[in-house]
């Protein structure tokens, strides 16, 4: 009888162990609907945040477009051209290429001449890209382009107090 009782006890322990494992297994597997809701929440949040970032860039570029000529232009309050020429001379004196200069102070003005038209062009391109991002085109290329264009304006304006 003991053997039967021991066998019965081990069977019940085994059943208990199996049922416990099943419970643990069920708890580890998340519900498909919960995962879909979490994923949808993430996607919606990502779209909203990137569109809001596009709106911030839009107003920053719009402000730059409206004010850069008077502030940083050739006849502005604090022209940016002397500062960029100084950066280019320092880079050339150190034996660096334009790429080296770009890596030290990222700006499209290592390749474009700085003028009122180029300041307006960079700001207008930024407004256009930011508008596309606000409308839903928020690719990594668009984000990198906005960063580079705005950083170009900030780098050009480092010699002044307007962007500090």
From TrEMBL:
Keyword line: Membrane, Transmembrane, Transmembrane helix
Any one GO biological process: protein maturation
Gene Ontology cellular component annotations, sorted alphabetically: endoplasmic reticulum membrane
TM stretches of this protein: 48-66, 122-150
Statement: the UniProt record of this protein carries the keyword Ribonucleoprotein: no
InterPro entries given in the database record: LMF
Top-rank taxon: Eukaryota
Name of the protein in its database record: Lipase maturation factor 1
Upper classification of the organism: Eukaryota, Haptista, Haptophyta, Prymnesiophyceae, Isochrysidales
